[in-house]
Structure formats: structure tokens, C-alpha cells
């Protein structure tokens, strides 16, 4: 099972999201093909209601801690309530910036 599927299953089981996007962004970074090391998550769930942003991120990180311990290097998290998602237009997660790490970093 791929890392993406494992992340999707963990978040779906715990958060019961009304909308979930899990994107493998590893291809945007200086990593070997198939690395599955950089992901972006947009989770829209009532489970986040009343939580501060830091608590939402901690919750998502806790749900994928096994992945973080076994090769997941970076996780961009967009954790919104349904109302926040609707207020933002109900679309996709924001576009991630270009990677400036490794050999792409400006000298």
C-alpha cells in the first residue's frame, strides 16, 4: 500500500472529513523518483471546530506519526472546518511554493 493511501486512510478514519485531498509533491523536490517523501494535505472536517491552528496541525501530525518516523520528510497541512473551506471558495488546497532546498537553493 502506498504512503498516500495510508495517510488517506488514517485521516479518514480519525477525522471523518467532508473533503480530503492528499497530494504527493515529492516530484517537486530533489528526491529519488518514487520517494513518497513530501505531501500536502487538505482536510475539511467538523473535528477541527474550536481548535487553534497549531492544535489542528498537531492532530494531523499525530495521525501520521508512523509515516513521519519512516521516511515522510515534509507535510504541508491545510486543516479547515467546513465553514472555513466554504469561505475560501470550497476549492483545492493552496498551491505549494517551489522547492528551494538541495541543489535548487540560491547561492
Distance between the termini: 39 Å
Percent of residues in beta strands = 15-25%
Tally of separate helices: 4
Backbone structural class: alpha+beta
Overall 3D shape? globular
User: How many DSSP-defined strands?
Assistant: 3
Q: Biggest sheet, in brief?
A: 3 strands, mixed
Low-pLDDT windows of residues: 103-107
Fraction of helical residues: 25-40%
Features:
three-stranded mixed beta sheet; 107 residues; single chain; alpha+beta
Task: Describe the protein's architecture and organization.
Helices cover 33% and strands 19% of the residues. With 107 residues, it is α+β, with helices and mostly antiparallel strands. The longest helix has 13 residues, at 3-15. The protein starts with a helix and ends in a 20-residue tail after the last helix.
